[in-house]
Amino acid sequence: MTNTNEQWSSKLGFIYATAGSAIGLGAIWKFPYIAGMSGGGAFFILFLLLTLFLGVPLLIGEYVLGRHTGKDAILTYKKLAPRSPYQLTGWLGVIACFLILSFYSVIGGWSLLYLGSSLTGQLSGLTLGESQNYFDNLIANPALALGAQLTFLLLAAFVVAKGIQKGIEKVSKWMIPSLLVLLVILAVYSLTLDGAAEGIRFLLYPDFSAIDGETVLFALGQSFFALSVGVSVMVTLSSYASKKQNLPASAMVLAVMNIFVALLAGLVIFPGVFTFGFTPEEGPTLIFAVLPAIFEQMAFGQLPLIAFFVLFLFAALSTAFSLLEIIVAAFVRGNQTKRKRASWIFAILVFIVGVPSALSYGLLSNLEIGERSFFDTVDYVTSNILMPLGALLICLMIPRKISKEILWQEFTSGSNAGKRLFALWFALIKYVVPLAICIVFIDQLFGLNLVTIIFG
């Protein structure tokens, strides 16, 4: 049992809430543009393999930690690894979630602005160049960028303030199915385009010669980002889970859903990219600058465009709920009387920290850190350094600080998992996952080209 007065109301409620955290902008915004810049099919195959063999074991590990202790991210590690460096893992996760939400809310704000623009017809009739100019001018406007970011965070705070069942779970139960239905409809629509075959080929046909150490690092970061692992988000969310919850099955369902959503997002975007002569290497602006121009050239283009930005807003909010919940839970410590105030206070603090990211494409466009904008720097540090580092610490801690008996009890509670499945998971979490993370890190830090050698 948890040390709070709340739990998810059902097994499905837990799935919806964790899916809301994972199936967000990581799959719909980030995956398509990173895949576009990283060779398409080779990146997708890497992402799939890393998700299944590294992400899922780590996800199960976070589930086990959270449900066993029934505590927030910070108290979980304090309880399990007192007076050891592993205690810092919880703080690392909360800080990373704070930073992720600070730039994530900027994109959430853009989704609000673009939903409004699509509803009012301001995106109608734009060529690619005009669409790019519209996007550049919109995000360079400090009042619009900051106002939209703040509005987005206040929406997230409103839901989190209502609590686990009445807030996050209640909203996720209708938001996640709606998101999936909209995504399927848009994917089917895109597959009717003339360039659909070329878009599918780009997304699914692997060219492994395009893989280097940075590609694997991006794929690893994306697999962790997409599953919300490495920063103890799932530790906190699973602290509200009952002992009847089947943790291994829940993790696999979430992973399959995430891969499926990433695939659908690629099928929505890349057929249009190739049909109308655009390039997939547009980067973070692919959704906002290119997609409106693509939809403009389709039949009934404004309707799917509006549907897409409704979908995009749902995806952004669903993940924002979980990121803010991790921060709030760490300071509420089970005292639900503090939840409302904490939700609003931390939303404002995240907004303040996120101001430089929101202004990275306007007033602070000249502020660069190592040739990256402030926005891109925060994204890179959290996705490719803090998340893998947090994941490494979790993998090192689990077999060293928790007995196999306790791990077995949590792994099998609510499931009929056998000893072979448990042994496979334990071997992956103890040896394979940390070794893979270390190889990628060393490859990047010292330029040893280990990944290139492995892939020939």
From TrEMBL:
<dbReference type="InterPro" id="IPR047218">
    <property type="entry name" value="YocR/YhdH-like"/>
</dbReference>
<dbReference type="InterPro" id="IPR037272">
    <property type="entry name" value="SNS_sf"/>
</dbReference>
<feature type="transmembrane region" description="Helical">
    <location>
        <begin position="344"/>
        <end position="364"/>
    </location>
</feature>
<feature type="transmembrane region" description="Helical">
    <location>
        <begin position="384"/>
        <end position="400"/>
    </location>
</feature>
<feature type="transmembrane region" description="Helical">
    <location>
        <begin position="305"/>
        <end position="332"/>
    </location>
</feature>
<keyword id="KW-0813">Transport</keyword>
<feature type="transmembrane region" description="Helical">
    <location>
        <begin position="216"/>
        <end position="237"/>
    </location>
</feature>
<feature type="transmembrane region" description="Helical">
    <location>
        <begin position="421"/>
        <end position="442"/>
    </location>
</feature>
<protein>
    <recommendedName>
        <fullName>Transporter</fullName>
    </recommendedName>
</protein>
<keyword id="KW-0769">Symport</keyword>
<feature type="transmembrane region" description="Helical">
    <location>
        <begin position="176"/>
        <end position="196"/>
    </location>
</feature>
<dbReference type="Pfam" id="PF00209">
    <property type="entry name" value="SNF"/>
</dbReference>
<feature type="transmembrane region" description="Helical">
    <location>
        <begin position="86"/>
        <end position="107"/>
    </location>
</feature>
<keyword id="KW-0472">Membrane</keyword>
<feature type="transmembrane region" description="Helical">
    <location>
        <begin position="43"/>
        <end position="65"/>
    </location>
</feature>
<comment type="similarity">
    <text>Belongs to the sodium:neurotransmitter symporter (SNF) (TC 2.A.22) family.</text>
</comment>
<keyword id="KW-1133">Transmembrane helix</keyword>
<keyword id="KW-0812">Transmembrane</keyword>
<feature type="transmembrane region" description="Helical">
    <location>
        <begin position="143"/>
        <end position="164"/>
    </location>
</feature>
<dbReference type="InterPro" id="IPR000175">
    <property type="entry name" value="Na/ntran_symport"/>
</dbReference>
<feature type="transmembrane region" description="Helical">
    <location>
        <begin position="12"/>
        <end position="31"/>
    </location>
</feature>
<feature type="transmembrane region" description="Helical">
    <location>
        <begin position="249"/>
        <end position="274"/>
    </location>
</feature>
